[in-house]
Structure formats: C-alpha cells, structure tokens
Amino acid sequence: MQKMRYKTYRTHWSYLGPPIKRRELLVDFVLDVLYLFGSNGFVPPLRVLNEVLLSGGNSGGMGPGTTWRPFWITEREYAELVDALLKLDVEAARKTHPYVYFQRAVVDKELSTTNTYIEWVTKCAEKLQAVSTIRTAHQDEKIIGYLNTDLELATQYNPAALLEAFAENELTPNWVRKETDSCWRMALEITESASLERNPAGMIEKMLAIIENLNGEARHVWETSSVRKFDIGYDCGDKPWAFSQVLPHSVLRRIVAVEAEIAITIYPVNLPNQSGD
Fold first, then answer.
1. Tell me, what's the pLDDT at 252?
2. At what angle do helices 216-223 and 160-168 cross, to 10 degrees?
3. Lowest CB count within 10 Å: 77, 126, 171, 238, which one?
4. Is the dihedral of CA 215, 217, 218, 222 positive or negative?
5. What is the mean pLDDT of residues 115-141?
C-alpha cells in the first residue's frame, strides 16, 4: 500500500489574522472541509467527494471556511481514505480539527448511489428526518411550545453554491427537491440549535448573519429566489394558560433588508388518527 498523499490548504477560521496555511494527510484535510460531514458522519461517495475537491472550497464569508487548489483523488486513494475515516479516533481528532461534529464516520449503502453534491445533501437530509425530541415532550405533556424555525426557499437556479455556503455555517437542509416546473424548493434549519436560546429571534438572527454575508454565486441564488421565508413552528396544547414570544424590531428590519418574509405554522399536539377511526 502506498502512503496516503499530503494536501496543502488554507483554513479561514478567524477574523484576527490571515488564513493559516496547512499541510496534512488527506484524512486530516477532509476533516477541515467543514460542509463534508456535518453532524452525521456520512462519508460521501467518490464522485460526490471529487465534485467538492474540484471546487477549491471557499473562505466561508461570515463563518469559517477552507480553501485549496482544486484536485481529485483516485479509487485507490478513496478506499484508503474511507478506511482511515472508519478507524478514526474522533475524540483525538477534535483536538486539532475543531469543526468535527460527528461521533463516528459512517458509510451508508443507500447514500452511495448519489451522483452530485445536491443529491447527496438531499438524501442525507431525508435519511436523518425523524420526530423531534422536543416535539415528543410537547406531545407527552400537551404543552404549547416553540419547535423550530425553517428557512424556506424556491429558486430556478442550481442551489449547490448556496447550500454549501449555508452548510459551512451549520444551516442544513431538512429537504431539497426539484419540482416538475424545474424549480428547486428546500427547507433548512440551524444544526446546532441546542447552543442557542430556544426562541425564534435567536434562530433567525443566526440565519440572517449567514445570509447577510453571502457572496458570489450563493448571493445570486439568494437574491433571485422567488420564495425567501422564515417559517416559525409551534406546537399547540392545553398549557400554559398563555404563551408569547417576541421578534424585536431590530430583527424585523434585518428580515426586510434581505427581502424575506415571515410565516407562522401551528401544529396540533395530538395528531389526527390516520386510520380514520
């Protein structure tokens, strides 16, 4: 077996100075490509990985980013990389790779059939869709409560650049689909929501910070989207007697500035019986 190749790249992780030039093994390099693994650890198939590698990355805008000279890897290199990822000591890796969020690397056979980055992101989101633990608590106790805020978009343009920019900043898709009218529609939410105060203002402010710093193709896709909507979700229930949350005028002004709108969606805690009884 030949030695794994080294890769030179630059990390843009701080406003305090210029990007840092690094030279690491391929397995360490991919851990610093922020939008590759997210919190699920799914390893992309070779064709999807090479699409990302050939992009050269970007500096991240408002958030962190990674850049490199575009390249691609062979099937042999990919097999060695996957083997190294599956054997990775994740806890040790986090000491030098601060944006490793997953618990372990995973090769999923269903996801291995994807051919493009957009298809990969879509399938990953579908794979991870599950009932929210927060919603389960609301259902058990029949309480009124804030669920989450989705960013809903519709665009006639390929959204790959926009999805990459969002993913680098922990704004990831719940679903992405291309409709019969060739319009791309999607809903996204903040990945690390537990680190934020659980109210719509905090969630929307984090999304706005990402949106306001979009550039290039990602900015173009955003500005030409026919739907740009913050959809705030709530569970209904029997208690408390009253429940209210506020969107400050400072947040409302920023929403208007990016030409987005607000929707409020109310969900019943006791879902209707699907059997018809």
1. 95
2. 110
3. 238
4. positive
5. 66
Distance, C-alpha 110 to centroid of its chain: 20
Strands 227-235, 145-155: pairing is antiparallel
Contacts of 137 (CB under 8 A, 6+ apart): 143, 145
- Reply yes or no on whether the pLDDT at 98 is more than 90: no
Task: State the CB neighbour count (10 A cutoff) for residue 73.
Answer: 18
Residue 168 CB burial class (10 angstroms; 0-12, 13-18, ≥19): buried
Provide the edge-to-edge strand list for the sheet that holds 227-235: 171-178, 184-190, 145-155, 227-235, 261-267
Q: State the pLDDT confidence band at 274, using cuts at 50, 70 and 90.
A: very low
For the chain, the domains span 6-127, 133-267
* pLDDT for 197 beyond 70: no
- What is the average per-residue pLDDT within 5-14? 83
201, 245 contact by CB (below 8 A): yes
Q: Which residues pair with 21 in a beta bridge?
A: 10
Q: Tokens representing 39?
A: 């919190």
- Only one residue has tokens 């794979």, namely 127
- Rounded to the nearest 10 degrees, what angle do helices 117-128 and 160-168 cross at? 50
pTM for the whole thing?
Answer: 0.56
Both tokens of 183, joined, read 């319009």
Identify the H or E element spanning 262. Answer: strand 261-267
Query: In this model, does residue 104 exceed pLDDT 70?
Result: yes
For range 47-67, the mean pLDDT: 83
- Using a 10 angstrom Cβ sphere, with 0-12 exposed, 13-18 middle and 19 or more buried, the burial of residue 90 is middle
Task: Report DSSP state, residue 175.
Answer: E
**What is d(CA 188, CA 31) in angstroms, rounded to the nearest whole number?**
23
**What is the spatial distance between Cα 111 and Cα 155, in angstroms, rounded to a whole number?**
25
